[in-house]
Amino acid sequence: MAKLEAESQSPLSYLFGLCVADQDREYTPERRSLRIHGHSTTIRLERAFWTVLEELAGQESISVAGLVTRIYDHCQVANQKNMASCLRVVCLKYINIGY
Prior knowledge:
Layout: H1 2-8, H2 11-18, H3 24-27, E1 29-36, E2 39-46, H4 47-60, H5 64-77, H6 83-97
Antiparallel strand pairs: 1-2
Helix pairs in contact: 4-5, 4-6, 5-6
């Protein structure tokens, strides 16, 4: 039934239907301190992105800090200097591949 409803709506209308008032915690930015190669850093992302990173870390059988370090290393090779942006893009790509 939900699939039929989704097909009858525009993509944006469908997404708006998924965003309900009691999900405001997902939009709240959250700071986390972690170590990347021994250096302390703080990263600020919306809770929804931390949720995706936690899921991906579980799939990789590593901690979130370990995952962020691996992403950091890749971002440096790809010449991306904004860590938060890189993490957000990785989260979106992870969701898009449908794991």
